[in-house]
Specification:
Length: 55
């Protein structure tokens, strides 16, 4: 989970730098909510190695 959170926050920071904005930092609860919503919609799932798969 820490790897996904770090990766997600890095992407948010890069977007903020491109747009000359302050970076928005996501916490674990927010990331879990996004994963849950996307899993419910069928757009994210766990692989056999228990890694998240985002198409």
């Amino acid at each position: 989970m820490d790897e996904y959170l770090a990766s997600w926050n890095e992407e948010l920071a890069q977007d903020a730098r491109r747009n000359h904005e302050e970076p928005d930092v996501m916490d674990s609860a927010e990331l879990i909510e996004i994963i849950h919503r996307n899993h419910f919609a069928g757009s994210v799932w766990l692989t056999g190695e228990l890694a998240l798969h985002w198409p």
